[in-house]
Protein backbone atom coordinates (compact mmCIF):
# COMPACT_ATOMS: atom_id res chain seq x y z
CA UNK A 1 0.00 0.00 0.00
CA UNK A 2 1.57 3.29 -1.09
CA UNK A 3 0.65 6.71 0.17
CA UNK A 4 -0.24 9.41 -2.33
CA UNK A 5 1.85 12.43 -1.29
CA UNK A 6 0.46 14.71 -3.98
CA UNK A 7 -2.89 14.90 -2.20
CA UNK A 8 -1.34 15.83 1.16
CA UNK A 9 -2.22 19.38 2.29
CA UNK A 10 0.55 21.94 2.73
CA UNK A 11 1.52 22.65 6.30
CA UNK A 12 0.28 26.01 7.61
CA UNK A 13 3.84 26.95 8.71
CA UNK A 14 5.10 27.04 5.11
CA UNK A 15 3.00 29.28 2.86
CA UNK A 16 3.26 28.67 -0.86
CA UNK A 17 6.06 30.49 -2.73
CA UNK A 18 3.55 32.76 -4.49
CA UNK A 19 2.70 34.29 -1.11
CA UNK A 20 6.36 35.05 -0.36
CA UNK A 21 6.86 36.71 -3.71
CA UNK A 22 3.69 38.76 -3.46
CA UNK A 23 4.70 39.87 0.05
CA UNK A 24 8.18 40.96 -1.12
CA UNK A 25 7.09 42.51 -4.41
CA UNK A 26 6.41 46.03 -3.02
CA UNK A 27 9.86 46.13 -1.38
CA UNK A 28 11.85 44.88 -4.39
CA UNK A 29 12.52 48.33 -5.95
CA UNK A 30 13.93 49.65 -2.65
CA UNK A 31 15.96 46.50 -2.08
CA UNK A 32 17.46 46.51 -5.57
CA UNK A 33 18.28 50.22 -5.50
CA UNK A 34 19.83 49.85 -2.06
CA UNK A 35 21.95 46.90 -3.15
CA UNK A 36 23.17 48.65 -6.31
CA UNK A 37 24.00 51.89 -4.47
CA UNK A 38 25.73 49.94 -1.70
CA UNK A 39 27.81 48.02 -4.23
CA UNK A 40 28.79 51.25 -6.03
CA UNK A 41 29.74 52.87 -2.72
CA UNK A 42 31.87 49.88 -1.77
CA UNK A 43 33.75 49.98 -5.08
CA UNK A 44 34.28 53.75 -4.68
CA UNK A 45 35.61 53.36 -1.14
CA UNK A 46 38.08 50.75 -2.38
CA UNK A 47 39.28 53.04 -5.18
CA UNK A 48 39.69 56.07 -2.90
CA UNK A 49 41.41 53.88 -0.31
CA UNK A 50 43.96 52.74 -2.87
CA UNK A 51 44.73 56.33 -3.87
CA UNK A 52 45.18 57.31 -0.22
CA UNK A 53 47.53 54.37 0.35
CA UNK A 54 49.61 55.33 -2.70
CA UNK A 55 49.89 58.93 -1.48
CA UNK A 56 50.93 57.79 2.02
CA UNK A 57 53.48 55.42 0.51
CA UNK A 58 55.00 58.09 -1.74
CA UNK A 59 55.14 60.49 1.22
CA UNK A 60 56.96 57.88 3.31
CA UNK A 61 59.45 57.17 0.52
CA UNK A 62 60.08 60.91 0.10
CA UNK A 63 60.70 61.36 3.83
CA UNK A 64 63.03 58.37 3.90
CA UNK A 65 65.00 59.72 0.93
CA UNK A 66 65.34 63.12 2.60
CA UNK A 67 66.46 61.43 5.83
CA UNK A 68 68.92 59.21 3.94
CA UNK A 69 70.61 62.21 2.36
CA UNK A 70 70.60 63.90 5.79
CA UNK A 71 68.46 66.80 4.64
CA UNK A 72 65.95 66.20 7.46
CA UNK A 73 65.99 64.30 10.71
CA UNK A 74 62.79 62.44 11.66
CA UNK A 75 62.01 61.43 15.23
CA UNK A 76 59.88 58.34 14.46
CA UNK A 77 59.20 57.56 18.13
CA UNK A 78 57.81 61.07 18.69
CA UNK A 79 55.70 60.78 15.52
CA UNK A 80 54.31 57.46 16.73
CA UNK A 81 53.52 58.90 20.17
CA UNK A 82 51.67 61.82 18.57
CA UNK A 83 49.59 59.80 16.11
CA UNK A 84 48.87 56.58 18.00
CA UNK A 85 45.97 57.85 20.18
CA UNK A 86 44.36 59.58 17.21
CA UNK A 87 44.66 56.52 14.97
CA UNK A 88 43.38 54.17 17.68
CA UNK A 89 40.35 56.36 18.35
CA UNK A 90 39.74 56.85 14.63
CA UNK A 91 39.76 53.14 13.85
CA UNK A 92 37.25 52.38 16.61
CA UNK A 93 34.85 55.22 15.87
CA UNK A 94 35.49 55.79 12.17
CA UNK A 95 33.76 52.64 10.95
CA UNK A 96 30.71 53.32 13.13
CA UNK A 97 30.54 56.94 11.97
CA UNK A 98 30.88 55.96 8.31
CA UNK A 99 28.12 53.38 8.70
CA UNK A 100 25.80 55.95 10.28
CA UNK A 101 26.52 58.51 7.56
CA UNK A 102 26.05 56.10 4.67
CA UNK A 103 22.79 54.61 5.95
CA UNK A 104 21.16 57.76 7.36
CA UNK A 105 17.58 58.23 6.13
CA UNK A 106 17.73 55.15 3.91
CA UNK A 107 14.68 52.88 4.01
CA UNK A 108 16.76 50.19 2.35
CA UNK A 109 19.73 50.25 4.74
CA UNK A 110 19.91 46.45 4.98
CA UNK A 111 20.19 46.00 1.22
CA UNK A 112 22.65 48.91 1.09
CA UNK A 113 24.85 47.29 3.76
CA UNK A 114 24.82 43.96 1.92
CA UNK A 115 25.71 45.68 -1.37
CA UNK A 116 28.43 47.68 0.38
CA UNK A 117 30.00 44.51 1.74
CA UNK A 118 29.93 42.94 -1.73
CA UNK A 119 31.37 46.10 -3.29
CA UNK A 120 34.25 46.18 -0.82
CA UNK A 121 35.09 42.57 -1.64
CA UNK A 122 34.49 42.75 -5.42
CA UNK A 123 37.32 42.41 -7.90
CA UNK A 124 36.34 45.14 -10.36
From TrEMBL:
Keywords: Membrane, Transmembrane, Transmembrane helix
Membrane spanning residue stretches: 20-45, 52-77, 97-120
Pfam families, per the entry: FUN14
Main location (coarse class): membrane
Keyword Repressor: no
UniProt subcellular location: Membrane
Family: Belongs to the FUN14 family.
Name the record gives this protein: FUN14 domain-containing protein
Lineage of source species: Bacteria, Thermotogati, Deinococcota, Deinococci, Deinococcales
Amino acid sequence: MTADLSAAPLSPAAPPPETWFSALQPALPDLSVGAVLGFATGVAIRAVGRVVLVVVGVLFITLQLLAYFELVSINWLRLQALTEPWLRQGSEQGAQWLGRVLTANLPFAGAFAAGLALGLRARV
